[in-house]
Amino acid sequence: MILDQINQPNDIKKIAPKDYDMLAAEIRDFLLQKISVTGGHLASNLGAVELTMALHLAFDLPEDKLIWDVGHQSYTHKLLTGRKKDFDEIRCFGGISGFPNRNESRFDAFNTGHSSTSISAGLGLAQARDLLGQDHYVVSIIGDGSLTGGMAYEALNNASQMKKNFIIVLNDNNMSISENIGGVSRMMNSLRTAPGYNGLKENVSTALSRIPSVGEGLVRRISNTKSSLKQLFIPGMFFENMGLTYLGPVDGHDINQMIHAFHDAKRLNRTVVVHVMTHKGQGYAPAENNPEAFHGVGSFVLETGKAVKKKTSRTYTDVFSQVFCAMAKKDSRLVGITAAMPEGTGLKLFHHLYPDRFFDVGIAEEHAVTFAAGLAAGGLKPYVCVYSSFLQRAYDQMIHDVCLQNLNVTFCIDRAGLVGSDGETHQGLFDLSYLQTIPNMNIFAPKNCYELADILRFSAEFQGPLAIRYPRGTAYEGLKEFREPIQYGKSEVLYEEQEIAILAVGSMVETAYAVRDALKAEGHNVTLVNVRFIRPMDQALLERLALTHRIFITMEENVHSGGFGEHVDAFCAEQELPVQMINIAIPNMYVEHGSVDKLKHVISIDAEGALRQIHNALAGRSEE
Predict the structure, then answer these.
(1) Residue 28 among the catalytic residues
(2) In 3D, which of 66, 79, 70 has the Cα closest to residue 108?
(3) CATH assignment of 316-469, given 3.40.50.2000, 3.40.50.300, 3.40.50.970, 3.40.50.1820?
(4) Residue 551: how many CA atoms within 13 Å on its side-chain side?
(5) Catalytic annotation on 365?
(6) Is 280 an annotated catalytic residue?
């Protein structure tokens, strides 16, 4: 096998050109064999095999820098840079990341995980190169889906001022995670279907030159204008009009054609956009036919593409989808908004049932939030459905456009807390911290699937901004005997005793229930509170419990800094409540990839770790 010759960085440069296509096929087979076992991002990686090979052949890494937007498509890059042996544990705890990571390899020039960032980062690296008098190439690879993000255009505008070489590779596969939508998608379609520039230019020049007396002069005059013939006929002028040189479209599965285009781009002392057309899921029929389903997959049967384990239990996303659709049937004011993730956020069924009230704005979280504010100001009831990690991108819009005006926007925050294998860039560890800083923001975390349904129904009549956070994965169905009606700003006391009060937030109620059992077995009297509303905090309950309890234990799946526990600490200190505080939260750190259960154990927020932290605190010790 030719792939056997790829073991160290730059080994690909030793491969004969006649063997490139065979190597690409072997890489695809390797990725399919590995990802079918471990899970991971499949369709995007299969589509970028030849593109990655061409980049590694045309540039000299690590001196030259490749910046991958999002990084979903970086598996071939990892394979070609000496990490082939590590693929058995990709995205597993202690193994290699599914995204570019500078701590993992010097061939990863920049950490990525969120979209629309590569041009900004690459431009910074290029400017740093020039200011330091260095001489190497910087290449930012960005997908057409990421071009729906406004940050990419801010960077393109800035890139037009470059006086030295900077290369942007537009990996155009007509997809983000779901199918692309909107004006950017239409623009990209025109680029894809444009006739070849060189052939068109030659034909037009020939025709004009045949005009008696004036033909040749007309050709020269048009060619010498700022716009030239290219301005008249090539849709790539979208980039040219911004001051960027456009090359392409180029076949993203023709390695030699891409190498030639990259060498052409290297000769120019300005920003160059090389437009490469690829096919998401290339070479594997199930992924080609359904690239959205194969964006991120668990283990699957290679021959059929079917998941090894069928989902047998409802997820929180499923619960949201079912309840929200039922609500929308009764209330025509309700509209759903997603940033390119209708399936991941549970809006796919809503889209099918109520297409006129469904809005996919593309990968544009900032726009999604301000768009929702406009809808609310116009009298509708918008629900912004988004992952916790991605909502971070719209912090200013939540402050300035939603909460300042106290508008009726509901944020359905999926994947709150630990999300597992996607790692540092995708863990939803910060939402409680940043949301609590915003005046007028109300925050709720349900303890189980039933409470998620209840708060969604409550939200339909609620006035003002409301954030509902819930975790990834199977919806907890325990404690269903406790279902007090939701009252604004009030917690739910599940068990009330004396001495120790556990105040648990959302997903941590299940863990707190186990911790309570363990403490009671040791002879303690333990109250268990389902916090429900993180903001406004149920201060009256805290004051009441402080009369009969000497210890408050807060439990949350959020970083400690700025979290619920820290706010309870501050309130108790201000009110001089005579209680000892113990905060069980995620340490103030970025948490790597791994299964959620493994990560909870490692950072000591599972029942065993929480109990150990409590014992240490009661004994006056701190956990190392």
Answers:
(1) no
(2) 66
(3) 3.40.50.970
(4) 18
(5) yes
(6) yes
